[in-house]
DNA sequence: GTCTATAAACCGATAGAC
DNA sequence: GTCTATCGGTTTATAGAC
């Protein structure tokens, strides 16, 4: 039960931070939602709110990465998986009244110029996502440098679409972003070989 | 001098909101940076912080739109202008130590699920940007529906790249996002006509 | 580890003199 | 319109009993 308290704190804070941001979420609200006490928070996180936030950023960043990778793994090929990721993001947005998007984006913008340790934590998360995406594209046959460029563009499309969707309460930007992501990645696969048949074979089982 | 006070308040708040967010910026800090008094703020904005924030969102959103459109107008064609916009964003990020990015993104994420009037204000800004971009692509010969999809993808790329760049303190994501933006838009121009020579003519004067 | 009580600072907002 | 003083509430964080 003691260990549970720490987990409940992280989960509650994660849920609140991504909806209200870091500065917009009070410790009392976190404690209330986690059914925990002041003493528990400062017992597990002697550094207070910032130490909790650093843990939340790393934990929710990794959790979201695993979620996305699971969707990607379930797809028949890289491009189809990419399509599923954007479609899934749109579904979650609709299902949660545009509350659940990127778990760290709001906090990342808040701390980028105000809290160096937390900024570094968000950078670690984005770097990990970038490395994993790059490896995935590379293992599908795209050169390392191009794979990294593609990954950065795809993450940017996803993050930017989250902002537009949440602000306008519409999934339309996520749909357009997904189409663009598929287009740029498909283009990279297409230019892999001069022979268009070879490229077609690589993508032969894709869904979309 | 009285009118100046209102303008100083909006400018100071705009500068602070985009760096620290809405919840992370106190009224006293705004007053201090604007060299203004409590009474001035509540004189010009009887609704307090929220009314000031609504004004800041609309003003800075419009200002950024005009800035981007000026860059776009100065370019020889649509694709070259797009390239200039992303290159310019990267330059500003570097010049400001990754502080000056989108003027409303941080606030937009903060208020999306917590403050309906301010969320609506951010939606108005993004809708205006979307309409202007759509009109620009459409006047360059792309169909209205496709022009809108392209615009949403381009704005998402820019906004997402801002997050990644600020978090990682690197312009690399903005460069990759710019390349992707150019690629998807060029692709739309390329499929305008089956005749590749005609498409080449359309883009013949582009820089990049 | 958990609980209660509280410190010390800061928050947005307002009152009233001038 | 501007200034000073302050209200009432909330913030993060800590102290000390159990």
General description of the model:
The structure is a homodimer of 208-residue chains. Chain A has 208 residues and is mostly helical. Chain A contains 10 helices and no strands. Chain A has helices at 2-20, 27-34, 38-44, 49-74, 78-95, 105-111, 116-139, 144-168, 172-190, 196-202. In chain A, helix 1 packs across helix 2, helix 7 packs across helix 8 and helix 8 packs antiparallel against helix 9 (172-190). At the A-B interface, helix 6, helix 7, helix 8 and helix 9 of A face helix 6, helix 7, helix 8 and helix 9 of B. Chain A binds a DNA duplex (18 and 18 nucleotides) through residues 2, 5, 26-28, 37-43, 48-49.
What can be said about this structure in brief?
With 208 residues, chain A is mainly α. Chain A contains ten helices and no strands. Helices cover 77% and strands 0% of the residues of chain A.
Keywords:
DNA-binding; homodimer; mainly alpha; disordered C terminus; 10 helices
Number of helices of chain A: 10
Largest sheet of chain A: none
Rounded average pLDDT of chain A: 92
Low-confidence stretches of chain A: 194-201, 203-208
Radius of gyration of chain A: 19 Å
Termini Cα gap of chain A: 46 Å
Q: What quaternary form is this? A: homodimer
Report the strand count of chain A: 0
**Secondary structural class of chain A:** mainly alpha
Kindly state the percentage of residues in helix of chain A: over 70%
Q: For the largest interface in this structure, which chains are involved and how many residues does each contribute?
A: A-B, 49 and 49 residues
Overall spatial form of chain A: elongated
- How would you spell out the order of helices and strands of chain A? HHHHHHHHHH
β-strand percent of chain A reads under 5%
């Amino acid at each position: 039960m003691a260990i549970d308290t720490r987990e409940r704190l992280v989960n509650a804070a994660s849920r609140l931070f991504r909806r209200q941001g870091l500065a917009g979420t009070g410790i009392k609200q976190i404690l209330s939602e986690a059914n925990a006490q002041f003493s528990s928070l400062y017992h597990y996180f002697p550094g207070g709110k910032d130490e909790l936030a650093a843990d939340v950023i790393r934990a929710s960043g990794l959790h979201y990465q695993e979620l996305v990778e699971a969707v990607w793994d379930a797809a028949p090929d890289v491009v189809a998986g990419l399509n599923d990721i954007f479609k899934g993001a749109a579904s979650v947005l609709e299902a949660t009244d545009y509350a659940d998007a990127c778990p760290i984006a709001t906090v990342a913008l808040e701390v980028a110029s105000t809290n160096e340790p937390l900024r570094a934590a968000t950078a670690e998360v984005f770097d990990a996502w970038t490395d994993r995406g790059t490896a995935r594209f590379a293992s599908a046959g795209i050169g390392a440098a191009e794979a990294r460029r593609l990954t950065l563009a795809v993450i940017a499309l996803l993050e930017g679409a989250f902002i537009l969707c949440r602000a306008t309460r519409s999934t339309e930007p996520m749909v357009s972003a997904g189409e663009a992501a598929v287009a740029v990645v498909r283009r990279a696969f297409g230019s892999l070989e001069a022979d268009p048949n070879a490229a077609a074979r690589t993508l032969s089982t894709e869904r979309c």
